[in-house]
Amino acid sequence: MLASHQPLNKVQQIVVTDAHAGQRIDNFLTTFLRGVPKSRIYRIIRKGEVRVNKGRISVSYRLNCGDTVRIPPIRIALDQSPSAHPSQQLTKTLELAICYEDDELLIINKPAGLAVHGGSGISLGLIEALRAMRPEASFLELVHRLDRDTSGCIMIAKRRSMLLHLHDCLKSGRVEKRYFALVQGKWRGGKKVEAPLLKYVLQSGERLVKVDVEGKPSKTTFEIVESFSEATLLEATPVTGRTHQIRVHCAFMGNPILGDQKYGDQDAKTQAKALGFDRLFLHAHKLVIQLPNKKDNLTITCPLPKAFVEYCQELRT
User: Fold this and answer.
1) Residue 33 sits in which domain range?
2) Cβ count within 10 A of residue 147
3) For residues 220 and 246, is the Cβ–Cβ distance under 8 A?
4) Residues 52, 96 within the same domain
5) Are residues 216 and 297 in the same domain?
6) Per-residue pLDDT averaged across 199-215, rounded?
7) Going by fewer Cβ within 10 Å, which terminus of the chain is more open, N or C?
8) End-to-end CA distance of the chain, in Å?
9) The domain spanning residue 66 has which CATH number?
10) Is residue 274 domain-shared with residue 152, that is, in the same domain?
Protein backbone atom coordinates (compact mmCIF):
# COMPACT_ATOMS: atom_id res chain seq x y z
CA MET A 1 0.00 0.00 0.00
CA LEU A 2 1.31 3.42 -0.92
CA ALA A 3 0.84 5.47 2.20
CA SER A 4 3.36 7.82 3.75
CA HIS A 5 2.58 9.77 6.90
CA GLN A 6 6.03 10.18 8.50
CA PRO A 7 9.18 11.98 7.28
CA LEU A 8 11.14 9.73 4.95
CA ASN A 9 14.49 9.83 6.74
CA LYS A 10 15.98 6.76 5.06
CA VAL A 11 16.28 5.23 1.61
CA GLN A 12 13.28 3.16 0.58
CA GLN A 13 13.09 0.43 -2.06
CA ILE A 14 9.60 -0.03 -3.51
CA VAL A 15 8.66 -2.89 -5.84
CA VAL A 16 6.03 -1.85 -8.40
CA THR A 17 2.86 -3.95 -8.54
CA ASP A 18 0.28 -4.35 -11.32
CA ALA A 19 -1.75 -1.51 -9.80
CA HIS A 20 0.94 1.03 -10.79
CA ALA A 21 2.33 -0.54 -13.98
CA GLY A 22 2.26 2.02 -16.80
CA GLN A 23 2.16 5.00 -14.43
CA ARG A 24 4.64 7.83 -14.88
CA ILE A 25 7.33 7.95 -12.21
CA ASP A 26 6.52 11.57 -11.28
CA ASN A 27 2.85 10.75 -10.69
CA PHE A 28 3.81 7.62 -8.74
CA LEU A 29 6.04 9.67 -6.45
CA THR A 30 3.40 12.37 -6.03
CA THR A 31 1.10 9.70 -4.61
CA PHE A 32 3.80 8.09 -2.48
CA LEU A 33 5.38 11.30 -1.18
CA ARG A 34 2.22 13.04 -0.07
CA GLY A 35 2.83 16.64 0.89
CA VAL A 36 6.11 16.92 -1.03
CA PRO A 37 5.91 19.67 -3.70
CA LYS A 38 6.07 18.50 -7.30
CA SER A 39 9.04 20.80 -7.89
CA ARG A 40 10.94 18.85 -5.24
CA ILE A 41 9.94 15.54 -6.83
CA TYR A 42 11.15 16.68 -10.26
CA ARG A 43 14.43 17.82 -8.73
CA ILE A 44 15.26 14.50 -7.06
CA ILE A 45 14.43 12.64 -10.28
CA ARG A 46 16.61 14.90 -12.44
CA LYS A 47 19.51 14.75 -9.96
CA GLY A 48 19.43 10.96 -10.13
CA GLU A 49 18.46 10.52 -6.49
CA VAL A 50 15.46 8.47 -7.61
CA ARG A 51 16.54 5.27 -9.36
CA VAL A 52 14.62 2.49 -11.09
CA ASN A 53 16.35 -0.89 -11.20
CA LYS A 54 19.53 0.96 -10.08
CA GLY A 55 19.49 3.24 -13.13
CA ARG A 56 18.66 6.91 -13.71
CA ILE A 57 15.34 7.70 -15.35
CA SER A 58 13.53 10.75 -16.75
CA VAL A 59 10.43 12.31 -15.21
CA SER A 60 8.34 10.76 -18.00
CA TYR A 61 9.53 7.17 -17.37
CA ARG A 62 6.61 4.72 -17.15
CA LEU A 63 6.85 2.01 -14.54
CA ASN A 64 6.73 -1.71 -15.26
CA CYS A 65 5.45 -4.41 -12.93
CA GLY A 66 8.41 -5.67 -10.91
CA ASP A 67 10.48 -2.47 -11.20
CA THR A 68 12.37 -1.55 -8.04
CA VAL A 69 12.14 2.17 -7.27
CA ARG A 70 14.78 3.72 -5.00
CA ILE A 71 13.42 6.72 -3.09
CA PRO A 72 15.99 8.88 -1.25
CA PRO A 73 15.52 10.38 2.22
CA ILE A 74 13.16 13.35 2.07
CA ARG A 75 13.72 15.82 4.89
CA ILE A 76 10.21 17.18 5.18
CA ALA A 77 7.68 16.66 7.95
CA LEU A 78 4.69 15.59 5.93
CA ASP A 79 2.38 15.74 8.92
CA GLN A 80 3.30 19.42 9.33
CA SER A 81 2.77 20.38 5.71
CA PRO A 82 -0.01 22.99 5.51
CA SER A 83 -1.12 21.63 2.14
CA ALA A 84 -1.64 18.14 3.57
CA HIS A 85 -4.66 18.88 5.74
CA PRO A 86 -7.98 20.31 4.55
CA SER A 87 -10.03 22.35 7.00
CA GLN A 88 -12.81 20.71 9.00
CA GLN A 89 -15.33 22.63 6.91
CA LEU A 90 -13.85 21.42 3.60
CA THR A 91 -13.65 17.86 4.92
CA LYS A 92 -17.32 17.94 5.90
CA THR A 93 -18.30 19.52 2.58
CA LEU A 94 -16.52 16.85 0.55
CA GLU A 95 -17.87 13.99 2.67
CA LEU A 96 -21.40 15.25 1.98
CA ALA A 97 -20.60 15.76 -1.71
CA ILE A 98 -20.03 12.08 -2.52
CA CYS A 99 -22.55 11.11 -5.22
CA TYR A 100 -21.25 7.61 -5.93
CA GLU A 101 -18.58 5.27 -4.63
CA ASP A 102 -17.51 1.67 -5.15
CA ASP A 103 -14.18 -0.17 -4.79
CA GLU A 104 -12.76 1.42 -7.95
CA LEU A 105 -14.48 4.76 -8.50
CA LEU A 106 -15.47 7.87 -6.56
CA ILE A 107 -17.72 10.61 -7.96
CA ILE A 108 -17.87 13.95 -6.14
CA ASN A 109 -20.23 16.91 -6.55
CA LYS A 110 -17.37 19.43 -6.56
CA PRO A 111 -18.21 22.81 -5.04
CA ALA A 112 -17.59 25.93 -7.12
CA GLY A 113 -14.37 27.74 -6.19
CA LEU A 114 -12.38 24.60 -5.39
CA ALA A 115 -9.58 23.78 -7.84
CA VAL A 116 -9.25 20.11 -8.76
CA HIS A 117 -5.55 20.15 -7.84
CA GLY A 118 -3.02 22.47 -6.22
CA GLY A 119 -0.48 24.60 -8.05
CA SER A 120 -0.19 28.13 -9.45
CA GLY A 121 -0.61 29.66 -6.01
CA ILE A 122 -3.25 27.15 -4.89
CA SER A 123 -1.97 25.15 -1.93
CA LEU A 124 -4.82 22.67 -1.70
CA GLY A 125 -7.04 21.23 -4.41
CA LEU A 126 -9.71 18.56 -4.48
CA ILE A 127 -7.36 15.64 -5.08
CA GLU A 128 -4.91 16.72 -2.34
CA ALA A 129 -7.81 17.12 0.10
CA LEU A 130 -9.19 13.66 -0.70
CA ARG A 131 -5.77 12.05 -0.30
CA ALA A 132 -5.37 13.72 3.09
CA MET A 133 -8.86 12.62 4.13
CA ARG A 134 -8.11 9.03 3.08
CA PRO A 135 -4.49 8.32 4.06
CA GLU A 136 -5.12 4.58 3.81
CA ALA A 137 -6.00 4.82 0.09
CA SER A 138 -3.19 3.47 -2.08
CA PHE A 139 -4.46 5.13 -5.27
CA LEU A 140 -6.55 8.25 -5.88
CA GLU A 141 -6.26 10.03 -9.23
CA LEU A 142 -8.39 12.53 -11.12
CA VAL A 143 -9.98 10.99 -14.20
CA HIS A 144 -10.74 14.38 -15.78
CA ARG A 145 -10.90 18.03 -14.79
CA LEU A 146 -13.42 20.73 -14.06
CA ASP A 147 -12.65 24.45 -14.05
CA ARG A 148 -12.16 25.85 -10.57
CA ASP A 149 -15.34 27.93 -10.78
CA THR A 150 -17.46 25.11 -12.25
CA SER A 151 -19.37 22.88 -9.83
CA GLY A 152 -20.62 19.34 -10.29
CA CYS A 153 -19.72 15.77 -11.20
CA ILE A 154 -16.06 14.82 -11.22
CA MET A 155 -14.62 11.29 -11.29
CA ILE A 156 -11.71 10.06 -9.15
CA ALA A 157 -10.27 6.62 -9.85
CA LYS A 158 -9.41 4.43 -6.86
CA ARG A 159 -7.53 1.90 -8.98
CA ARG A 160 -5.21 2.38 -11.93
CA SER A 161 -7.18 -0.12 -14.03
CA MET A 162 -10.29 2.06 -13.65
CA LEU A 163 -8.30 5.20 -14.51
CA LEU A 164 -7.07 3.62 -17.74
CA HIS A 165 -10.55 2.31 -18.59
CA LEU A 166 -12.19 5.70 -18.13
CA HIS A 167 -9.44 7.51 -20.04
CA ASP A 168 -10.09 5.13 -22.94
CA CYS A 169 -13.84 5.81 -22.66
CA LEU A 170 -13.24 9.57 -22.70
CA LYS A 171 -11.00 9.37 -25.76
CA SER A 172 -13.52 7.25 -27.68
CA GLY A 173 -16.55 9.34 -26.72
CA ARG A 174 -18.12 6.72 -24.44
CA VAL A 175 -18.61 9.12 -21.52
CA GLU A 176 -21.61 11.45 -21.66
CA LYS A 177 -21.22 14.67 -19.69
CA ARG A 178 -24.08 17.14 -19.36
CA TYR A 179 -24.00 20.60 -17.83
CA PHE A 180 -26.50 23.22 -16.74
CA ALA A 181 -25.46 26.70 -17.89
CA LEU A 182 -27.33 29.88 -17.02
CA VAL A 183 -26.55 32.39 -19.76
CA GLN A 184 -27.26 36.05 -20.28
CA GLY A 185 -30.23 36.97 -22.48
CA LYS A 186 -32.33 34.90 -24.87
CA TRP A 187 -30.37 31.99 -26.33
CA ARG A 188 -29.23 32.63 -29.91
CA GLY A 189 -27.23 29.49 -30.59
CA GLY A 190 -29.78 26.91 -31.68
CA LYS A 191 -29.30 23.19 -31.05
CA LYS A 192 -25.54 23.10 -31.59
CA VAL A 193 -22.47 25.29 -31.78
CA GLU A 194 -19.49 24.21 -33.86
CA ALA A 195 -16.58 26.63 -33.58
CA PRO A 196 -12.82 25.84 -33.50
CA LEU A 197 -11.06 26.75 -30.26
CA LEU A 198 -7.50 28.02 -29.87
CA LYS A 199 -5.57 28.45 -26.62
CA TYR A 200 -3.55 31.63 -26.06
CA VAL A 201 -1.75 33.39 -23.22
CA LEU A 202 -2.05 37.03 -22.14
CA GLN A 203 1.01 39.09 -21.21
CA SER A 204 -0.05 38.64 -17.59
CA GLY A 205 0.36 34.89 -18.02
CA GLU A 206 -3.37 34.15 -17.86
CA ARG A 207 -4.35 31.27 -20.16
CA LEU A 208 -7.49 31.75 -22.23
CA VAL A 209 -9.31 30.21 -25.19
CA LYS A 210 -10.87 31.89 -28.22
CA VAL A 211 -12.75 30.94 -31.36
CA ASP A 212 -10.20 30.90 -34.18
CA VAL A 213 -9.98 29.17 -37.56
CA GLU A 214 -6.54 27.88 -36.52
CA GLY A 215 -8.03 26.18 -33.45
CA LYS A 216 -9.13 22.60 -32.84
CA PRO A 217 -12.58 21.45 -34.02
CA SER A 218 -15.09 21.82 -31.18
CA LYS A 219 -18.78 21.02 -30.89
CA THR A 220 -21.35 21.51 -28.14
CA THR A 221 -25.06 20.68 -28.29
CA PHE A 222 -27.60 22.76 -26.38
CA GLU A 223 -31.18 22.34 -25.16
CA ILE A 224 -33.23 25.15 -23.61
CA VAL A 225 -34.41 24.07 -20.16
CA GLU A 226 -36.11 27.32 -19.14
CA SER A 227 -36.30 30.86 -20.49
CA PHE A 228 -36.39 33.93 -18.27
CA SER A 229 -36.85 37.57 -19.21
CA GLU A 230 -33.10 38.32 -19.05
CA ALA A 231 -31.48 34.88 -19.02
CA THR A 232 -31.76 31.31 -20.32
CA LEU A 233 -31.10 28.03 -18.52
CA LEU A 234 -29.44 25.58 -20.93
CA GLU A 235 -28.40 21.96 -20.82
CA ALA A 236 -25.06 21.75 -22.63
CA THR A 237 -23.44 18.53 -23.83
CA PRO A 238 -19.85 18.86 -25.08
CA VAL A 239 -19.24 16.49 -27.99
CA THR A 240 -15.55 17.36 -27.91
CA GLY A 241 -13.67 18.10 -24.69
CA ARG A 242 -11.72 21.33 -25.19
CA THR A 243 -10.63 23.63 -22.37
CA HIS A 244 -13.39 26.13 -21.43
CA GLN A 245 -15.42 24.83 -24.38
CA ILE A 246 -18.94 25.52 -23.10
CA ARG A 247 -17.97 28.92 -21.71
CA VAL A 248 -16.36 30.08 -24.95
CA HIS A 249 -19.12 28.69 -27.18
CA CYS A 250 -21.77 30.49 -25.12
CA ALA A 251 -19.83 33.77 -25.20
CA PHE A 252 -19.25 33.35 -28.96
CA MET A 253 -23.02 33.22 -29.50
CA GLY A 254 -23.48 36.44 -27.53
CA ASN A 255 -24.82 34.62 -24.46
CA PRO A 256 -21.98 34.52 -21.92
CA ILE A 257 -22.54 32.42 -18.81
CA LEU A 258 -23.58 34.57 -15.87
CA GLY A 259 -20.76 35.22 -13.44
CA ASP A 260 -18.04 34.33 -15.98
CA GLN A 261 -15.03 36.44 -15.04
CA LYS A 262 -12.99 35.28 -18.05
CA TYR A 263 -15.39 35.36 -20.99
CA GLY A 264 -18.42 37.33 -19.82
CA ASP A 265 -19.14 40.97 -20.61
CA GLN A 266 -19.72 43.42 -17.78
CA ASP A 267 -23.46 42.75 -17.72
CA ALA A 268 -22.89 39.01 -17.34
CA LYS A 269 -20.41 39.62 -14.54
CA THR A 270 -22.65 41.99 -12.58
CA GLN A 271 -26.16 40.63 -13.23
CA ALA A 272 -25.83 37.86 -10.63
CA LYS A 273 -23.84 40.04 -8.20
CA ALA A 274 -26.69 42.55 -8.14
CA LEU A 275 -28.83 39.90 -6.46
CA GLY A 276 -26.08 38.75 -4.13
CA PHE A 277 -24.82 35.74 -6.09
CA ASP A 278 -21.13 35.68 -6.93
CA ARG A 279 -20.24 32.52 -8.87
CA LEU A 280 -19.99 31.06 -12.36
CA PHE A 281 -23.37 29.55 -13.21
CA LEU A 282 -22.05 26.39 -14.85
CA HIS A 283 -22.70 23.00 -13.23
CA ALA A 284 -21.76 19.50 -14.42
CA HIS A 285 -25.01 17.79 -13.47
CA LYS A 286 -24.91 14.38 -15.18
CA LEU A 287 -22.48 11.60 -16.10
CA VAL A 288 -23.25 8.46 -18.10
CA ILE A 289 -20.33 6.01 -18.12
CA GLN A 290 -19.53 2.42 -19.02
CA LEU A 291 -17.99 0.42 -16.21
CA PRO A 292 -15.87 -2.68 -16.85
CA ASN A 293 -17.80 -5.96 -16.89
CA LYS A 294 -21.13 -4.17 -16.45
CA LYS A 295 -24.02 -4.67 -18.88
CA ASP A 296 -25.77 -1.38 -18.17
CA ASN A 297 -24.31 2.11 -18.14
CA LEU A 298 -23.91 3.95 -14.84
CA THR A 299 -25.84 7.24 -14.70
CA ILE A 300 -24.96 9.72 -11.95
CA THR A 301 -26.60 13.09 -11.35
CA CYS A 302 -25.19 15.78 -9.06
CA PRO A 303 -27.83 18.18 -7.67
CA LEU A 304 -27.59 21.88 -8.42
CA PRO A 305 -25.94 23.97 -5.69
CA LYS A 306 -28.24 25.99 -3.47
CA ALA A 307 -27.03 29.33 -4.90
CA PHE A 308 -27.80 28.17 -8.45
CA VAL A 309 -31.34 27.09 -7.51
CA GLU A 310 -32.01 30.28 -5.54
CA TYR A 311 -30.88 32.50 -8.40
CA CYS A 312 -33.18 30.72 -10.84
CA GLN A 313 -36.01 31.31 -8.37
CA GLU A 314 -35.12 35.02 -8.28
CA LEU A 315 -35.28 35.14 -12.09
CA ARG A 316 -38.80 33.67 -12.07
CA THR A 317 -40.17 36.49 -9.89
Assistant:
1) 12-77
2) 19
3) yes
4) no
5) yes
6) 94
7) C
8) 55
9) 3.10.290.10
10) no
